[in-house]
Structures are given as structure tokens and as C-alpha cells.
Amino acid sequence: MNNKSSYKSGFVAIVGRPNVGKSTLMNHVIGQKIAIMSDKPQTTRNKIHGVYTQESSQIVFLDTPGIHKRTSKLGDYMNQVALNTLNEVEAVLFLVDVAAGLGGGDRFVIEQLKLVKTPVILVMNKIDQVRPDEVPAMIQQYNELHEFAAIVPISALQGNNVDRLLQVLHGYLPEGPQYYPDDQITDHPEQFVVAELIREKILHATREEIPHSIAVTIEDMRVQENGVVYISAVIFVERDSQKGIIIGKQGALLKQVGKQARRDIETLLGSRTFIELWVKVKKDWRNHERVLKDLGFRHDV
Ligand SMILES: Nc1nc2c(ncn2[C@@H]2O[C@H](COP(=O)(O)OP(=O)(O)OP(=O)(O)O)[C@@H](O)[C@H]2O)c(=O)[nH]1
Question: Which sequence spans correspond to the domains of the chain?
């Protein structure tokens, strides 16, 4: 895992009507890996669409399906979940199909996006299907409906201008940790990120006092009947003194960590969560290969 302070990372939500090319774009950006991820049954509503990792940055793309329909009560609820997510991410990619033209579905999504304070980047996909001289008028049409942070025409299928899109996105990434390892797609991608978010909050709250000698494992994570995701996580430290620091006076620091982590985790999952944090001392765990493996860590932690 990379803990360089200059590392940048963040969440980006992708929205767009069915068939506009969301999967094709992800395939182009990330390649084969996401196929594995998206095949996994998801416990929650927001799906991780893909993770794009580079030397100094990482983007976690979220799929936000709820935004497109307005039908039932469930639809309303989904919509609210989607809107909450969109308000918490670094940027929203709004994909449209220029070949299909601007339709009612797009207009509906734009109305939803007006409720969101996050920068929205309009991605005009399937540019290979129209004549170049048609593009300015199309841009104009969308510009009249909403003030987008940026407008980027691409062909996800042919890969045209996708680099430019990634460049624009990088501009919106704050400093943050590398949530996912470079090349490893875990069986439980959500759990991995949840653990990493908790770890990040601890390091932030304790500053220099707790070196990076902590590990966080998710012992239990499941959706309860009331829809709340229950998470039980164990924080492993090397010394008793570190345990005291992390718990804090009357549990104050741990409570703060839990609160901050919950905010991010709820954004990621699009669900309410209940998080239990435990602190355990496991002496010199970093030196033990097997323990490391149990904890699901690689060697360079
Ligand atoms: N010509 C052209 N076709 C594209 C482009 N991007 C996607 N397509 C095609 O559009 C169709 C739909 O693409 P998907 O990536 O499955 O769309 P999606 O938005 O993920 O669709 P849902 O999963 O239904 O939400 C596929 O046949 C793609 O090959 C593009 O840039 N140009």
C-alpha cells in the first residue's frame, strides 16, 4: 500500500441511461479486471465499477444505478441513495450517447444532477458515430440545459480522447490513500476498501503517535433485515500503549474514527451502516508472514 503524502485518490460516480457505454468506457480504462469484479454479487446498491490505479493516483469508479427512474416508492428511495452518493464523491461522470441524441431520459438525469453540488463532467460518448461538424451544436444543446464542470467528447469503443477524460478527472482528486492494491482484485472488493477507510481515519486522527504499524480486518459485513449494513472490524496494533491511544479517553478517539469512517463508507456503499470497532494487540505482527497473509496484506505494508 502506498502512503506517500502526495498520493491522490478519490471516488467518481458514473451515471447515464442504459446503453450509453458505461461498461465500454470502464473496459477501456481498466481492462479485463472489472469483469471479475462486476460478476460478484454485490451486497449493496452502489457497485464498484472499476478501479484505475497509477503510480501516484487511484480512481474508484462507482456505478449509481438509482438515478435513472422515477417509479415506485422503492424508486424514490433508490434515487435518494443515489443523490447522497453523488453529493459525496469527487466528481460525477454523466455519460450520454451522441448517436442516440438528447432524449427524455437524459433530461431527467440532468434535472437530478442539478440537485448535486459535486462537479459534473459531461461525457459525450460514441463520437465516432457522428460527423465532427455536428459536435459543436450538440455541445451547445447540453450547455443550455446545465452548467457542466467540463464537457469531454469521447469514443469509449475506439478509445478516442479517453486520456483527456482521465486527465480532467485527475484535477478533481484530493490527496488520499491507495484504496486498492495495484494488481490484486480481491473476492470482497468492498471489504477491502472499508478496511482501508478505517485505517486511513485512524492514521489521520493519531498523526505521528501511531506509526503505520496497524492493520484493519473486516470480521463481519452483512446487510441486516432493516437494510443497514452491519460491519465489525478489528484494528490490530503492536503494543498495549498503542491500543490505549487508539481507544482514547473514554473511547473518544475510537468513536471519532468510527464516525468519520462511517461517513465515507456510507458514501461508498450507498447504505446506512452500523460499525463496531475492536482494538487488539498482536505483537510484532508485521514480522510474521503467516499472520500477514491471514490479514490479507501484501509484503510491503
Ligand atoms: N460506436 C460506438 N459504440 C459504442 C461506444 N461505446 C459503447 N458502444 C456500444 O454501445 C453498446 C452499449 O454499451 P455498454 O457499455 O454496454 O453500455 P452501458 O451503459 O454499460 O449499458 P448498461 O449496462 O445497459 O447500463 C454496446 O454495443 C457498445 O459496443 C462508442 O464509443 N462508439
Answer: 8-170, 189-294
Please tell me the distance from the alpha carbon of residue 60 to that of residue 41, in angstroms, as a whole number: 18
**Does pTM top 0.90 for this prediction?**
no
Please give the class, per CATH, of domain 8-170: alpha beta
State which H helix or E strand residue 28 sits in.
helix 22-30
CA 99 to chain centre: 29
* Rounded Cα distance, 15 and 114, in Å: 13
ipTM > 0.95 for the complex: yes
Q: For domain 189-294, which CATH number applies: 3.40.190.10, 1.10.510.10, 2.60.210.10, 3.30.300.20?
A: 3.30.300.20
Residue to mutate (ligand 1; options 15, 17, 19; most atoms within 8 A of CB):
19
Q: Ligand 1: which of 157, 161, 162, 165 to mutate, most ligand atoms within 8 Å of CB?
A: 157
Question: Residue 45 above 50 pLDDT?
Answer: no
Lowest mean pLDDT among 166-175, 201-210, 275-284: 201-210
Quick one: cell of 265?
A: 463508507
